Amino acid sequence: MPQIRSAYKRLRQSKKRHLRNKAKISEIRSLAKNVDLLLSEKKKDKAEDALRLLESKLCKCVKTHTIKKETASRKISRLRSHLSKLK
Questions:
Q1: Which residues are CB-contacts of 75 (< 8 A; sequence separation ≥ 6)?
Q2: Rounded distance, CA 69 to CA 58, Å?
Q3: Can you give the CATH number for the domain in which 13 is found?
């Protein structure tokens, strides 16, 4: 445990941020699995809506530096290409 007061505060902050980021990433993974499931079941309309929601969440995570910009764009690109193949 930190001895200095400011170091203890940084520890508290980092724990809070870790939990917040972990929740966001977990939500993104769940949404991505949902989109994959809808694409495999060939439900185009529902998959588009779910993908739109996923893109929104990914952009928000990029803005808050939870994930990297390239990672988000790669995930979006791959799912969009699967969706276009479905059409």
A1: 32, 54, 58
A2: 9
A3: 1.20.58.110
Number of helices (H), then strands (E), in the chain: 3, 0
CA angle (78 as vertex; 47, 42 as ends), nearest 5: 30
pLDDT in tens, the chain (87 residues): 889 999 999 999 999 999 999 999 999 999 999 999 999 999 999 999 999 999 999 999 999 999 999 999 999 999 999 999 987
Q: Which two tokens stand for residue 31?
A: 């949404």
The domain of 74 spans 5-86
Task: Provide the number of structural domains found in the chain.
Answer: 1
